[in-house]
């Protein structure tokens, strides 16, 4: 009898486990094409909540939604295009990389706000794929002159980091050197081993941009070539080398970024835009509350919005800054934010150097996409949780039966 009951338990557990696995395997694939198409159209709804919920549902559906989302990159509704790109980035299926680059290259770029927003979404999506996107982006950038599409493609390489450095270094030898140098500098330490040898390059413009990209470095291997560059024929290279050496001499060892407050996650761009609009009054006109902390009276050299959804505070490299001072500055900003109805406002502190005058630099320092912080949470799969609960229930019932038999 006990052997039969034991076999019954094993069989019951096998059935429950099989049901759970079947549920996991079929949950997303069972969504109909019509349901996916409906969710994609809701990405263009005028209601932000409906858009966001549709985006979350499509991310949860995953791979079955990829092809319809790729098709939606050409939708007549710009909101559908924009949010389809972002959802593809969040799903992370690599088959979307080439279509996203194609969408970037085929934009007419009449400099409308909608087109720029779509370009930003494509840039964000491509950057989220990481290393698999590097080679396709490099191929797209070959022998290109600057354009909106090219600018977004170069910017997409920055969040990828070290795997993208060789591509950006090669761009220093092209007409895209200004943009490449900026993003190499934002990548920072992973780019230094590539950049230091370029301080002695035969091309004066490459020496110039390599020195610019190394402003803020603490790498001792850069000291000698930067010192030699002080006698360079290129005036801009001399100025940047001088600035880099000055910063190295006075630099604080702590040059990482610090986030205070609560980070927000956005599934569609309208959520982000509404959020940024709520932050604009806080930074408008460099408000008086932050002025006492500005250089030369304090360490702050920049204050504005980052399009990822943060207030950003740039601190001068080499200035005396500690956690206590950052906490003090944050409390002042947070108090102002509360007056505007924003709780736990996210503020990103980063260390920067004073800008170096240049012949032609067109960079948006106040609002840029160079910093993208991510958080992750571990969640238990719902079907799996239900399966475990069922197994526990079966074990309890059989246990009661066994106790009665004895």
Automatic annotation (TrEMBL):
It comes from the Archaea. The keyword Ribosomal protein does not apply. Pfam families: HEAT_2. The chain crosses the membrane at residues 384-402. The keyword Transmembrane applies. Keywords: Membrane, Transmembrane, Transmembrane helix. One of its GO terms (molecular function) is oxidoreductase activity. InterPro entries: ARM-like, ARM-type_fold, PBS_lyase_HEAT. This is HEAT repeat domain-containing protein. It comes from Methanolobus vulcani. The lineage of its organism: Archaea, Methanobacteriati, Methanobacteriota, Stenosarchaea group, Methanomicrobia.
């Amino acid at each position: 009898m006990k052997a039969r009951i034991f076999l019954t338990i094993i069989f019951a557990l096998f059935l429950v486990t099989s049901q759970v696995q079947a549920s996991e395997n079929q949950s997303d694939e069972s969504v109909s094409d019509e349901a996916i198409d409906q969710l994609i159209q809701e990405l263009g709804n005028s209601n932000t909540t409906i858009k966001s919920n549709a985006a979350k549902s499509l991310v949860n559906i995953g791979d079955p939604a990829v092809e319809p989302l790729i098709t939606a990159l050409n939708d007549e509704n710009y909101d559908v295009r924009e949010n389809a790109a972002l959802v593809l980035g969040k799903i992370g299926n690599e088959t979307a990389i080439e279509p996203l680059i194609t969408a970037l290259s085929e934009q007419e770029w009449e400099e409308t706000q909608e087109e720029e927003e779509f370009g930003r979404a494509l840039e964000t999506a491509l950057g989220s794929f990481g290393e698999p996107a590097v080679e396709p982006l490099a191929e797209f950038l070959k022998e290109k002159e600057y354009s909106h599409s090219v600018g977004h493609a170069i910017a997409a390489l920055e969040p990828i980091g070290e795997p993208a450095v060789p591509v950006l270094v090669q761009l220093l030898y092209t007409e895209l050197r200004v943009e490449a140098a900026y993003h190499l500098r934002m990548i920072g330490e992973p780019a230094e081993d590539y950049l230091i040898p370029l301080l002695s390059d035969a091309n004066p413009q490459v020496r110039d941009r390599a020195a610019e990209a190394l402003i803020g470095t603490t790498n001792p291997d850069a000291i000698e070539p930067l010192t030699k560059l002080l006698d360079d024929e290129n005036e801009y290279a001399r100025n940047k080398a001088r600035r880099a050496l000055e910063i190295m001499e006075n630099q604080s060892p702590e040059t990482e970024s610090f986030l205070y407050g609560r980070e927000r996650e956005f599934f569609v761009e309208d959520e982000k835009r509404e959020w940024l609009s709520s932050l604009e009054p806080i930074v408008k006109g460099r408000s008086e509350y932050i002025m006492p902390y500005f250089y030369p009276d304090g360490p702050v050299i920049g204050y504005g919005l980052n399009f990822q959804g943060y207030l950003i505070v740039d601190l001068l490299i080499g200035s005396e800054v500690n956690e206590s001072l950052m906490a003090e500055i944050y409390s002042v900003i947070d108090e102002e934010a509360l007056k505007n109805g924003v709780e736990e406002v996210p503020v990103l502190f980063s260390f920067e150097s004073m800008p170096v005058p240049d012949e032609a630099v067109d960079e948006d320092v106040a609002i840029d996409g160079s910093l993208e912080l991510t958080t992750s949470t571990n969640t238990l799969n719902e079907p799996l949780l239900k399966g475990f609960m069922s197994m526990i229930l079966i074990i309890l019932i059989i246990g009661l039966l066994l106790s009665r038999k004895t």
